[in-house]
Amino acid sequence: MSLFSRTFIFIAKLAKLSERVNYKTPKRNTREFAPSKINKKLQTDEWFIEGHQVITISPPENTNHHIIFLHGGAYVIEGQDIHRKLAERFVLEHGFKVSYIEYPLAPEKTVIDTHRVVIQAYKEITSKNPTDKFYFFGDSAGGGLAIALLQVFREKNITPFPIHTVVVSPWLDVTMGNERISEFEKKDAILSLKNLKEAGSMYAGSVDPKHPMVSPMFGSTENLGSILMFVGTHEVFFPDCVEFAEKLKNSNGTNAQLIIGEELFHDWVVVPLPESMNTIKTIVNFFKS
């Protein structure tokens, strides 16, 4: 682990980062993906579904490689500047289109609203770009949402099915019921188990929190396509990610790989660290393979 990573973890622990987020009254209308904040070299196409932003960011050169970006934030926090900067990197440095969806969040909305808006957004994005190759990218809660959507797309025969999916530190079970999680909680400088359970309950609403649309850990892993998963050894999601990766690897119609970040923390890919630079290169190569 790099010195930068060690410093980040030290500061996160010192600041008690895991306890500072207010999940019941999170900030709203931060508009981190407003067209005015996007690099001026890039083209944008913004529209709204039920008041929720959808924006496609395109490079100056034509491309048919198209990432659907599902941000993390425990289903309660809007996309942050670090998400925008990562999306811009995919576009500027690697020539992808990126479509970002500011999906409905708890506590105001629940999983039913989130799925409805994201599925409608996906249909509109793919309709607007009929010759593109589509990929899912999701971090943390966005990673869990990406896997849940793959399961829904399979069941409802929604096409085009994403060619590749990358999930970073995905939240796969909002109940956090895995007995091994307690071993990792003390290592995790980012996430609070108490807050996660609260946020997961708000996101589920009236839906059983173990329903696959909320917690894809409990859904079928057959025919989900090509999936690349990342998780750090110092995060509470580690046990679930390892268990889920084994299920994926033993499933028909699913090709999955798990990359473990030794001593790395939750969602390290979206933080500008040496480890994340190498991981982004791996993601780009996977998408374009």
Account of the 3D structure:
This protein has 289 residues and is of the alpha/beta class. The chain has a single domain, classed as 3-Layer(aba) Sandwich (Rossmann fold), CATH 3.40.50.1820. The chain contains 9 helices and 8 strands. An 8-stranded mixed beta sheet has the order 1-2-4-3-5-6-7-8, sandwiched between helices. The longest helix is centred in the middle third of the chain and has 18 residues. It is globular and about 50 Å long. The relative contact order is 0.15.
Give the tags.
20% strand; eight-stranded mixed sheet; alpha/beta; globular; Rossmann fold; 289 residues; 9 helices
- With strands numbered from the N-terminus, the spatial order across the biggest sheet is 1-2-4-3-5-6-7-8
Q: CATH-wise, what's the superfamily?
A: Alpha/Beta hydrolase fold, catalytic domain
Number of domains: 1
Q: Look up the CATH topology.
A: Rossmann fold
Beta strands, count: 8
Helix content: 25-40%
Q: What structural class should be given to the helix and strand makeup? A: alpha/beta
Q: What would you say the CATH architecture is?
A: 3-Layer(aba) Sandwich
**Average of per-residue pLDDT values:** 93
User: What Rg is obtained from the alpha carbons, in whole angstroms?
Assistant: 18 Å
Task: State the separation between the terminal residues, measured CA to CA.
Answer: 28 Å
The total count of helices amounts to 9
Assign an overall shape: globular
CATH class: Alpha Beta
Could you give the order of the helices and strands? HHEEEHEHEHEHHEHEH
Question: β content, as a range?
Answer: 15-25%
**Spans with pLDDT under 50 lasting ≥5 residues?**
none
